[in-house]
User: Fold this.
Amino acid sequence: MKMYITSDSWPFYEQRDGSLTDTPDPAVSDLGWDSVEQMMEWDEDAREATLAERKWAARCRYNARYEEV
Assistant:
């Protein structure tokens, strides 16, 4: 799954249908785009995430999951 970062450092995950959501699970997403092209029209500085950014986002999701318990 590709991950993109907006200019304000918000991560978005590309879903199978081409849409982008702010969480890997679109069922719990509350922010999204219909396509990468739509996001790029709104934020021309958005880009594909680096490996380091992907790891950071995964750590944040992991930590958030265990803080809820």
Notes: Helices lie at 36-42, 51-67. DSSP finds two helices and five strands in the chain. The chain has one domain: 3-67. The longest strand covers residues 11-14.
